[in-house]
Amino acid sequence: MSPSPTERTSTSPGNGRTAPPGCGDPARPALAWERARDLARDSAGPPLPAVTRDLPDALGHALAAPLRALTDLPPFDTSAMDGWAVAGPGPWRPRDDGVLAGEEPGPLGPGTAVRIATGAPVPAGASAVLRREHGEIEEGTGLLLDRSEGQIAPGRDVRPRGQECRADDVLLPVGTTVTARVLGLAAAAGYDRLAVHRRPVVELLVLGDELLESGVPRHGRVRDALGPLLAPWLRGCGAEVTGRRRVPDDLALLRAAVWDSTADVVVTTGSTAAGPVDFLHAALAELGARLLVDSVAVRPGHPMLLAELPPAADGRPRHLVGLPGNPLAAVAGTVTLAVPLLRGLGGHRDPEPPRTVAAAALPRHPRDTRLLPVRRTEQGAEPLPFDGPAMLRGLACADGLAVVPPGGVAAGATVEVIDLPPDG
Description:
This is Molybdopterin molybdenumtransferase. InterPro entries: MoaB/Mog-like_dom_sf, MoaB/Mog_dom, MoeA-like, MoeA_C_domain_IV, MoeA_C_domain_IV_sf, MoeA_linker/N, MoeA_linker/N_sf. Its EC number is 2.10.1.1. The chain is of the alpha/beta class and about 425 residues long. It folds into four domains: about 5-50 and about 200-345, MoaB/Mog-like domain (Molybdenum Cofactor Biosythetic Enzyme, Chain A, 3-Layer(aba) Sandwich); about 50-70 and about 165-195, Molybdopterin biosynthesis moea protein, domain 2 (Alpha-Beta Complex); about 80-160, Molybdopterin biosynthesis moeA protein, domain 3, CATH 2.170.190.11; about 355-420, MoeA, C-terminal, domain IV (Beta-clip, Beta Barrel), CATH 2.40.340.10. The chain is built from seven helices and 27 strands. Strands 1, 20, 23, 24, 25, 26 and 27 form a seven-stranded mixed beta sheet that branches. A six-stranded mixed beta sheet has the order 17-14-18-22-21-19, sandwiched between helices. A four-stranded mixed beta sheet has the order 6-7-5-8, with no helix packed on it. The longest helix has 20 residues, at about 325-345. The chain is elongated, with a radius of gyration of 30 Å. The model is unreliable at about 1-25 (pLDDT under 50).
């Protein structure tokens, strides 16, 4: 590992409140937005190691092995309706007993029938299920008659064994995100535990002396909006967020906070530009970090960065994602750099980018990609007001962020819309 902060010579004055020269490089060209996203994903390298989790604890992880069926589904022929299991053509002599779900019925002889509930195993010898509303017991004879039109076809209203899958069929591939729906399928297929990739551990460092933790903005200070917003979003992206720390505008304190973090990914807010108290570039330089992305041609959010930190004591690679301090700009940085990195580390497959029609012309930036809050309507993606870098009002009403290229998007044209990270 690189020398500790105390072993390095600080390039700032004693109180650490003056930005050293070389903090950011305004002459360095910003990376294209698509390239920055690809670099973030590629920098993750191989996914984190596989672990085994009980089904509830696997939620949000990515499968580290294919989900193979441990049994046929259904595991036996089952009734699709309430009614009677019947053997051969009618009329039938009904038995006195019945078959409920969870029971093992005895065989059914030719010309006989037995009452059966939805989901119950179909007795051996049964040819079909006669729906309750189609069956009638004839007075006098006690025979079961079919009052539907035509002959009851063999296999009618029976879910045959293996209709959904056979044992050892691949149900889901490696890299599938474990959702509640996946948990249900895994349980149905016989699983108690799943092999999944470890979730990347993230620590959130919120930088800035101007931030308040409670109350209304006052005395030139503003509320921290990013701490409450980003922590659940990062969890929703598959991260395990272990902490959120406030760090004052001080080079030595920032450098120490990054150095001391044991997280796989450190996410910072603010200090990514070249202002008088923007110390992140200097702190990374002193720690021996390697900048992978330093400014992206996207609005809002262009002064974002991605760095490879010195490895942890156990040799684990570590990364830092530097997000701008303005709220919507930080959201742009999250979907550009943090989300691809976290998905790569967690072993998640990348879905096809969703595209939709623009309900109206989407305003452009003359040179850069623009990420614009939109709402999905019947007419398509509709741009929302209050889309400035420091605003969250439009985002709060948005379904996603439209990716608007420098040329803009005309009404009726298709546009990529990034889904917002789910709340963790």
